[in-house]
Amino acid sequence: MRRRKKPGSKEKLLSYEDYLCKEPEKYKGRWKDYFHEEKLIHVELGTGRGQFITTLAEMNPHICYIGIEIKEEVLLRAVEKAVDKGLKNICFLWCDINKIHDIFDKNELSRIYINFCDPWPKKRWVQRRLTHRNFLEKYKYILGENGDVHFKTDNEKLFEFSLNELSYENFRLNNITFDLHHSETNDGITTEYEDKFSALGMKIYRCEGVKRN
Ligand SMILES: C[S@@+](CC[C@H](N)C(=O)[O-])C[C@H]1O[C@@H](n2cnc3c(N)ncnc32)[C@H](O)[C@@H]1O
């Protein structure tokens, strides 16, 4: 069943001017100016309700975080978390991940997180998967030297697909786990979807792909 949008969520989201960057294309190549800081920039694609990225931003004030999300009602929840925590090193973009090349310039990012993205299971949808080689090409361009992609999913087939695509695109694979919550590499920083799936006893798959220079 499709959920009805909450009335007023768009207006409320737009009112958080310190946390929502409304014209992200303007900052292409100069995101450090947006944050007024010479810090590393980490981006989460499909940030959802923001538990993961706001936890990281709180723990790592020396890094600037950008969360990208297309659904305003969901994004509003993420922004409210950042407001509640009084975070200064985070902003959110209400936009489509497909526009990422209009928003970030070559070598601008240090890390991209992709957590529990839509698996797009049918063959004809393969190019929509965020770990498809076409997306990985774009990530390679906007990631700087030794930049990396951190990927988590509950979907085994998508995970296998993603490992293959990362290898095809010449990323170096690190810290691959087929059961994160029983692995030494687990840092305990979870997303909302991760909490939901792991509570159901589902395995969480995780890997890192490091860009080779
Ligand atoms: C399955 S949810 C996972 C949310 C969060 N990462 C988590 O793990 O709890 C995927 C999220 O990606 C967002 N999303 C999907 N396609 C997108 C796109 N093209 N641009 C921006 N966000 C997108 C969805 O709206 C949704 O909130």
Automatic annotation (TrEMBL):
GO terms for molecular function: tRNA (guanine(46)-N7)-methyltransferase activity. Substrate binds at residues 122, 154, 191-194. It comes from the Bacteria. Keywords: Methyltransferase, S-adenosyl-L-methionine, Transferase, tRNA processing. One of its GO terms (cellular component) is tRNA methyltransferase complex. S-adenosyl-L-methionine binds at residues 44, 69, 96, 118. InterPro entries: SAM-dependent_MTases_sf, tRNA_(Gua-N-7)_MeTrfase_Trmb, tRNA_methyltr_TrmB_bact. Pfam families: Methyltransf_4. It catalyses: guanosine(46) in tRNA + S-adenosyl-L-methionine = N(7)-methylguanosine(46) in tRNA + S-adenosyl-L-homocysteine. Its EC number is 2.1.1.33. The keyword S-adenosyl-L-methionine applies. Pathway: tRNA modification; N(7)-methylguanine-tRNA biosynthesis. PROSITE patterns: SAM_MT_TRMB (PS51625). Catalyzes the formation of N(7)-methylguanine at position 46 (m7G46) in tRNA. Belongs to the class I-like SAM-binding methyltransferase superfamily. TrmB family. PANTHER family: 3-DEOXY-D-MANNO-OCTULOSONIC-ACID TRANSFERASE/TRNA GUANINE-N 7 - -METHYLTRANSFERASE (PTHR23417), PENTACOTRIPEPTIDE-REPEAT REGION OF PRORP DOMAIN-CONTAINING PROTEIN (PTHR23417:SF14). This is tRNA (guanine-N(7)-)-methyltransferase. It comes from Clostridium aceticum.
